[in-house]
Amino acid sequence: MISMKSLSDLKALAEIEANLIPGGIVYGIIEGDTMTWVKKSDSLDINVFYIGLKLDKNSTSMLAIREKRIISQNIPRSVYGTRLHISSIPIIDEEDNAVGAFSFAIPKVHSVLKAFPDFAPMLSEMFSEGVQLRIADLNKIVGTQSSKKFDIPFLKEGVALDKNYIESKVIQSKKPASQEISTLEYGVPVRLSAYPLFDEDTNEIVGAFSVTTPKEIAVTLRNMSANLENSLTGISSTIQELAASASEIHSNQQNLSITINEITALSEEINKVSEFIKAIADETKMLGLNASIEAARAGEFGKGFGVVAAEIRRLSEQSKDTIPKITKLTDNIKEKVDESNKKSQISLSASQEQAAATEEITASIEEITSSSEELNKIATTL
Fold first, then answer.
1. According to the per-residue pLDDT averaged within each range, which of 190-194, 274-278, 282-286 is highest?
2. Which residues contact 158 (CB under 8 A, 6 or more apart)?
3. I need a surface site. Which of 52, 88, 115, 238 has the fewest CB within 10 A?
4. Domains with residue ranges and CATH for the chain
């Protein structure tokens, strides 16, 4: 309790301390049931105490006077527009009667709001793309901190909360919330996150803390990832078509190789037939020669037979002369076939290598596509 004699000293002390109390304070002296003296911090704009105020019998000050003890109460926002902590100390006269009270009211500020000026400047420079931190009560933004890289000029201290602001949504729902805005409403694409602030004693919602970060790099990264994924899908489709073509080419080369081998075998058979014809021609020539000898012995009677024998020898010679030409042609065919076979084998080997390379490329593209999908997921979380 406070003695009447010390009131002048108490007033002098209050005059000094009023502007030294963080968050502000209002002092008041009540005599009987009326406020007779008031001192408040210059930064505080609440009309809780004023000279001439008649106090209700159930007010903190009147309870302190009546019960002759120090009374403290938390006053909800609905009374004065802000939460207050009011304490009243009885003033005692020389007969030890409670004749008044010395009261003071301190705005009750959430711990995050109290610490905001200390942690916000440091935290704001920890975001690589920049950030704006905000803290709001139920009606307006009461504090902001922007990094050097990023700012939202129209969201400043004192700006009333619009119903579409994320702070309003969090206060309404009493739950944390996040959203991404890809339009240029904030100058660049951004991510908004907000968290409700509750009274430590009553668990009443009292405000919100919000974080706004630019997402330009993340959006660019996601777009690049999406474009890369689309391109890889197209390339993969083309590679698959190429792989199918390579497989078909390989199959055709195998069939061609089989056909060339069959032609080579036929050339061998032609050579055998030529050898057989040559043997017949030699035998026919010998028979014609013998027939000519016998015709000569027969004299006049064998003259006609001699003409036939001469014709047989002539045909035999012609057949024999044709054999080298056939052999040469078949040798040329065989040579060309062998050459084609070698090229076919080279093509067959190349098509096999192409098919193997195509499979490797397809596997690599699938791996890159998988990495692109992971990249897109990472970009989404940024």
1. 190-194
2. 140, 141, 142
3. 52
4. 2-108 (3.30.450.20), 112-214 (3.30.450.20), 220-381 (1.10.287.950)
Rounded Cα–Cα distance for residues 88 and 22 (Å): 20
Q: Which of 115, 116, 146 is nearest to 131 (CA)?
A: 146
Distance CA 268, CA 265 (A): 5
310-325 exposure pattern, b = at least 16 Cβ within 10 A, e = fewer? eebbeebeebbeebee
Q: What is the pLDDT of residues 246-264, one digit of tens each?
A: 666 666 666 766 777 777 7
Q: How confident is the model at residue 354 (pLDDT cuts 50, 70, 90)?
A: low
Is residue 289 within 8 Å of residue 317, measured between CB atoms? no
CB 382 within 8 A of CB 213: no
**DSSP symbols for 69-83:** S-EEEEEPHHHHSS-
Per the structure block, which two tokens stand in for 149? 């890289």
Buried b (16+ CB within 10 A) or exposed e, 81-102: ebbbbbbbbbbbeeeeebebbb
Rounded-to-integer distance, Cα 100 and Cα 97, Å: 9
Considering only 64-68, 194-198, 225-229, 310-314, which range has the smallest mean pLDDT? Answer: 225-229
What tokens does 152 get? 């939202």
Q: Are strands 141-146 and 177-181 parallel, antiparallel or unpaired?
A: unpaired
Helix axes 303-381, 216-298, angle to 10 degrees: 170
